[in-house]
C-alpha cells in the first residue's frame, strides 16, 4: 500500500476516534513517547501517559468531544517520519456548555513496524485573516 495512503488512513483513524470521544481508540493512535503542544496549556506534555492523565481529568470535569472535522490536509514524507497538517473544526462540551473550535494542527507520524503512529501533535488557533 502507498505510504501516503497509509498515513492518510492513520490520520483519519485518529480524527475519527477523537471525534467519537473514544478514549481507548484515540490514545492507541499515539506512540508511548509522543509529545503534545496545545495552545491551551502553559507547557508541552512530554508523553502519551501525561496526556491521558490530563484527558481523564478533563473528562471527569465534564469535557466531551461531540464532533471533529478535518480539512485542507497535506502530507509530507520524510523517510520513516511523516508530517500531516490539517485544519480542524471541533465541537466540544465543557460542563454542559457547547463550544465550536477552529484550529490548525500538525501531527508527526512515525513508522512502527507496519503501522504509522502519531509521535507529536501541535495544535494552534486559526488566526483571523
UniProtKB/TrEMBL annotation:
Coiled coil: none annotated. Transmembrane segments: none annotated. SUPFAM superfamilies: NTF2-like. Residues 7-126 form the SnoaL-like domain. InterPro entries: NTF2-like_dom_sf (IPR032710), SnoaL-like (IPR037401). This is Nuclear transport factor 2 family protein. It comes from Pseudomonas shirazensis.
Amino acid at each position: 500500500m502507498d505510504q501516503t495512503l497509509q498515513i492518510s488512513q492513520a490520520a483519519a483513524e485518529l480524527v475519527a476516534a477523537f471525534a467519537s470521544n473514544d478514549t481507548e481508540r484515540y490514545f492507541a493512535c499515539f506512540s508511548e513517547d509522543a509529545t503534545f503542544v496545545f495552545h491551551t496549556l502553559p507547557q508541552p506534555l512530554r508523553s502519551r501517559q501525561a496526556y491521558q492523565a490530563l484527558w481523564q481529568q478533563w473528562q471527569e470535569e465534564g469535557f466531551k468531544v461531540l464532533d471533529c472535522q478535518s480539512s485542507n490536509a497535506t502530507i509530507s514524507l520524510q523517510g520513516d517520519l511523516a508530517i500531516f497538517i490539517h485544519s480542524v473544526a471541533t465541537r466540544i462540551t465543557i460542563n454542559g456548555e457547547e463550544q465550536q473550535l477552529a484550529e490548525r494542527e500538525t501531527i508527526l507520524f512515525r513508522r512502527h513496524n507496519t503501522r504509522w503512529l502519531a509521535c507529536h501533535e501541535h495544535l494552534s488557533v486559526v488566526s483571523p485573516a
